[in-house]
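Re: the request from the purification team.
They wanted to know what the chain is likely to look like in 3D before they choose a buffer screen. I agreed to run a prediction and write the result into the notebook, where they can find it.
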Amino acid sequence: MAKIVQLGYRIHAVQLEDRQDEIHQRWTADGKYISKSAYNAQLLGAYCTFDSASIWKANMEGKHRIFTWLMVHGMSMEVWWNSNMQGRHKKLKQKMASLMIYTAWNLWKERNRRMFERLFALPTWVVSMIKEEIRIRHQACGGEDLLHVS
């Protein structure tokens, strides 16, 4: 009962002013709300162990990036992803991410062919399909040649 009385005193002591309310967001430098700040606040304290930024910066179609993010994030493939991204400079990281995404995408397609169509390709054929998709993308969109990464 004493706590209720204390709360009543505190509420009674609050002085309201006749002016427009102001909301300040502590997640941005200027205090203004933006969607990104809401996501940052939501994920505050979350622990992410893989370099997801390299997925989104890869020169790929959106479906490939989304597929890879879900695969790496949801299937505990973080060690594979991180070991290939670690210690590489920005441009090489972008190329490696693209190659890894094409590889994962085509392995997934091969898995689906085996599961749903009962068709089995040799590993060399899958590699040639990965190279062909990279070549077609390069021909259509330009950019750097991914097949010659060093």
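For the purification team: The radius of gyration is 25 Å.
Please add any questions underneath this entry.
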